[in-house]
Amino acid sequence: MSADLQEGLYTLHPIGVVRSALTSLAAAPLQGDEGGPEAWLEITVPAAHGLDGITAGDELLVLTWLHCARRDVLHVHPRGTRETPVTGVFATRSPDRPNPVGLHRVSVREVTGRKVRVAPMEAIDGTPIVDIKPVLGRLNER
Amino acid sequence: MSADLQEGLYTLHPIGVVRSALTSLAAAPLQGDEGGPEAWLEITVPAAHGLDGITAGDELLVLTWLHCARRDVLHVHPRGTRETPVTGVFATRSPDRPNPVGLHRVSVREVTGRKVRVAPMEAIDGTPIVDIKPVLGRLNER
Asked: What is the value of pTM for the model shown?
């Protein structure tokens, strides 16, 4: 590929971590609106001021690093069932993919210092958070 | 922070690059639906089979690495104008943020081998692509 795809330049520095009662993938729903519980976004001290302006009632997109996912997978059965035909991972929401970035649409319930209570959140306890963005315009994303 | 936030574990491997007539940030719109042109997503050979199942007409979320962004910024004037009050980057769509992952909602116009023609795309030529996901359910995201 071209020179602008040098590896090693793109290291994510987590800005926080998901704190949730969900502690295993087996218990987690596939998507937040399929029963994702409340969770806390616990933001690091260095990144905490990036939350300024976020308040209860806001709709956010939370980007996570799905640390339990496999990165060597390009084909899956969507939703993990053999009843669906195998397809490329970029046509699915499988967590297994070359760069397992999770995308979660949540509502803010409470902001307390550098902790944000949100729902629904299907990511398990300990999942690193890499970015938070507001939902804008025709954006609505879980 | 806790032990599950070890740095260096989270390296993105670009799966492709944006090919666009937009070659400078000065010419790029702030958001795709503010005049973003067509662009090609040129996927790497190793990742190309992840596209299987994507066809013209699909609505996709493209995640990019905004390689020109600043990572040391936690506060901005939204939309770059001093007329808006300073706020935390996580409450804005500023490209400047600790992990400058761009999120773009696009429509697929054409798929040719490992190249996908999409619109609108406000990212400039050479922007690394890190993930592609389908728009699902109540998801719609640019």
From this structure: 0.90
Least CB–CB distance from B90: residue in A2, A45, A50: A50
Closest CB to A74 among B47, B88, B140: B47
Residue with tokens 């297994």: A96
Token pair in block for residue A37: 């519980």
- B78-to-A41, A88, A111, B87 alpha-carbon distances in Å: 23, 37, 21, 7
DSSP letter for each residue of B18-75:
EE-S---GGGS-SSGGGT---EEEEE-TTTGGGGTT--TT-EEEEEEE-TTS-SS--E
pLDDT tens for each residue of B89-126: 999 999 999 999 999 999 999 999 999 999 999 999 99
Contacts of A89 in chain B (CB under 8 A): 50
B2 touches chain A (CB under 8 A): yes
